[in-house]
Amino acid sequence: MKHTSVVATLLLLAPLTACGSAQAGDGSTVTVTVGYQSRTINTVTAGTLLRSLGYFEKELNSLHDGRTYKVDWQDYATGAPITAQMTAGKIDIGSMGDFPLLINAARGKQLGKPTHLVSVTGYNLRGGLNTIVTSPDSKLASLADLRGKKVSTSVGSAADGTLVRALQRAGIDPDKGIEKLNQQPAVGASALTAGSTDALSQFVAWPGLLTYQGKAKALYDGAELNLPTFHGVTAREDFAEKRPAVLEAFLKAQAEATDYLHDHPVAAAESVAKATGLPAEVVYLYNGDHGISTFDPAVKPQLVSALKQDVSVLKAAKLTGDIDVDSFVDDQYVRKALGAGYAARLAAAPAASASEVWPKGASATQSFKTPSELLAYVSAHRNGIRGAYVPDATTGTLWFADKAIWVADGDQLLPFVAPETARAYVSAHGGARVITYADALERAS
């Protein structure tokens, strides 16, 4: 992760020189400009993975409408510059998180360049996509310990929303109770590593990446809020109305990329890792077979409801005014693109959490019914493990087995993402106690 802040800055600025859009060309050649965030891996089915698979280009080539289509993929560090380019008419389709989507809606309406949420990429119904982390040697052990501390986040992001809500539930004023540092994810990560901030609240894949690298440990699992978080696809209204077949082609391609991810989770993780420079083990934590994120293009009612609840957080931060979420959401294009299969996707539930091991050299993972069974396997194959993942016993959020907080409760060995959740379990179960990972492996062997 050397030079991450510089890379993030370049990703933010470089695409601003491009001006391709579906409005360009002489009529026979149409350039479709797609804004995406390669390192925000909850959007890969509309960005990194989709681009590498070439499904969108294939769908465009099948239109046979007398035009030649070209796709201009523009990579950004966050959703804000994508929104800026969309309202300037320079990006046709973009993907971003739920809070940036709302800002996208507000800016589009404010500038007379309306946009619409047309599909979903990845989601977590409990909010597990956002995590608050601290440095590995930090003595902070709960949200209450953040009072008066420096906390880095990206204001206006879903991670900031998680921080605000978590602090409020802990009885801390998010405006006065902490010193909030508004920083890009890469800058915040560097600040945490340098010791210039006490904690970092961020979205995928930063918390998992820093934890995997040994540069952070989890303090708060966003799934404790039990509020859905997601990323989605937004399109300019004028583009959708002028090129509905192109938008539908994109959504068909997105669905194909989603199916590919489901059918080939390890290969998909490897592909995204190669394109982004992220470790494949981190990508798999979020996008794997039982990962933190569930991928489905359907615009589920639970997610729309969550989006409406998010408006109040942005209003309180004075980032937006009122937002008409119902007019922003427009699933007509994805419904048409997916046809009869849309209803099944809409009704589909997330896969149940499971413990998984990724053996070295293997093209597939192995699942286990319990964390104890996974530990027994890891103990017997200590030098043959590429990744080991376990779901939090309370929230179901997947985490690295060697980074989890382990609790022994009789014969049970239970993993937790954050120390506070583990302590809550221990206090409610007489005889249960926190143990080390090494002890958990020994007990399971």
Automatic annotation (TrEMBL):
Cleaved signal peptide residues: 1-24
Keyword Protease: no
Protein name listed in UniProt: ABC transporter substrate-binding protein
Keywords assigned by UniProt, alphabetized: Signal
Highest taxon above the source species: Bacteria
Organism of derivation: Streptomyces sviceus (strain ATCC 29083 / DSM 924 / JCM 4929 / NBRC 13980 / NCIMB 11184 / NRRL 5439 / UC 5370)
Domain SsuA/THI5-like: 83-268
Lineage of source species: Bacteria, Bacillati, Actinomycetota, Actinomycetes, Kitasatosporales
UniProt xrefs under Gene3D superfamilies: Periplasmic binding protein-like II (3.40.190.10)
